[in-house]
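Troubleshooting log. The previous run stalled partway through. Resubmitting the same two chains, unchanged.
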Amino acid sequence: MSSSRRHFLAQAGVCACCLPALASAKVLDTGIESLVGPGYEPVDKDERGMWQSLERLEEAIRNSPKRLDAPKFDAYTRGVVERLVERPVPDLRIYVMRDASFNASMAPNGMMVVHTGLAARIRNEAQFAAVLGHEAGHYSRKHTITQYRSMRRKSSASAFIGVLTAIGGVGIAGDGVSLALVMSMYQFSRTQESEADAFGIKLMARAGYSPGAASEVWKQVIEERKASAKLSEQKYKDASKSAFSTHPATDERMVDLKDTAANLAGGNFSDHRDEWVAITKDHMPMLLEEQINLNDAGASLYIIENLAQDGWTGLLRYNEGEVYRLRAGEGDAEKAAAAYATAITLPDAPPEAWRANGYALLKAGKTEDGRASLNKYLELNPGAKDAGMVRFTLAQ
Amino acid sequence: MIRYIPLTAVLLYCVGCVSTAQTQNTAAGYKPPSGNYKVVVMRPDIAASVLTAGGQLEQREDWTNTAREHVLDALRAQQAMRGGQATITVTSGDDPALRDLDRLHEVVGQSILLHKYNPYAQLPTKKGALDWTLGSLATDFGKSAGYDYALFVFARDSFSSGGRVALQGIGMLGCIVGVCILPQGGSQQAFASLVDLKTGNVIWFNYLAALTGDIRTQVGAADLVNRLLEPMNTEPKAKSKTKKT
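Second attempt completed without errors. Output:
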């Protein structure tokens, strides 16, 4: 795809060297201020119409069955945003959606959507704040409406050029100018992403979050994609490394954020890991299960190992076993069995780890140990949905 | 904004239509509602936009609010003339039953629009048939709320900006030198569907597109509602059911 695009660009006479994707790393400008205060209401017609056009979408999101039913986590997320922007945010509505992908988005009317897949990859509150701060940056800097206006201006120019060049018969030059306008729309979007990064990291430092967490998030994303590609025997390619990308190249964002963080160093920063662990404790089994069910062993193992940098837990070991069990490749049964066996030695192993360990042992012919583990599962989780089936196995 | 894609597909098809295009589809054995029936008219999905020079549709809040009111008024008047008891809902956001039905229809209605009105997206198994259903969600709602029918209305109206008109002007000048490029101006698209809440089936569906009309005015809104819903009263002739539209 990318090579044909480059070919297309070369033909159209647009030189690749002027494309911003090749720009070198820079320290982001953290001097920018918010354009939106509490109780902000748009005045301009285009912005009011944009807000109105989002009403039905937001209604659907608000009532979606895919929404995570977790009022405490919602409140916590709101708290992190408030800590970042240093004001209450009644103007923001935050929706956490059950979606295993790494994503969050911000609509101009104050609708913020956070995917559960984001929470699954995050190690501490500072990393979470890095993403929320970035989204708050889009909102505070009114990016959607500015981008729309820029697009309206450029597509209008492009339309006039299109009609005029067709009539005048100067197609090639006109097409070049139109294409340059299209390219500049993408560039505009990338500039906004950088600005949101800069805004986010500024808020982080001000709120006492380790600013280094922002580049950590991107480092994790890159490493996870590489791990995923490696295990599925594909070559890692950053889709945002294109002149047609709306986002800057991931590795550049990481380096820019890292350099900017170094520039902001010297404050009294913390990653607030304890708060993050406490609020996500009850959700972690679901978050990991959602990821593992994607059956992307490379990504899942990376995510688990990344989280385990803060210490292996029974839950992480159990899920590591689940990744191998689901992949079911050569030697995976043994790897899964080993992970389950380790999981049950850890204090916070979920009951399912005992069940998985039990079945793995029975398969390996270790009947007595296997039965003991299954009994332990029933003891820990007497009301389990599959209790009948486990009892049936025990009765054999 | 995935839900607008099918409509765009229809729009492309209608770029060449100058006059009003209008075609209704009916389920097998369709009979217009009659007698002492109860119909719920679901919150109409209405928007009015300005068409910018570059071709974007930019929703205008003031126009949309006016258009919504006029369309609701026109629906009340139109339904009052039909007989039967009509309840017109202004919001469905807070009632889960209404909301779910509305959301389901949003998807089904757009599917009908795509597969019945876009010649490039015809489904071989749906040829000459209107056999979509909202299933038990609709029948359960009908039973609990006590309605016989649900009527859904969707309308979009757009108007050229000054820049768009200028662009069209330049395009027309081109005709003098033999290069005619005529960018499309504002246009109107609407569809409506009638669901039998006893079976859950979509029994009647109508779509219209026009390059004229103005739902921001009382007269224009009434005109749209009448053109859109009037065909519902006519029982199709037996042979017209298999006729290609």
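Takeaways: The longest helix of chain B spans residues 61-82. Residues 1-22, 239-245 of chain B have pLDDT under 50 and may be disordered.
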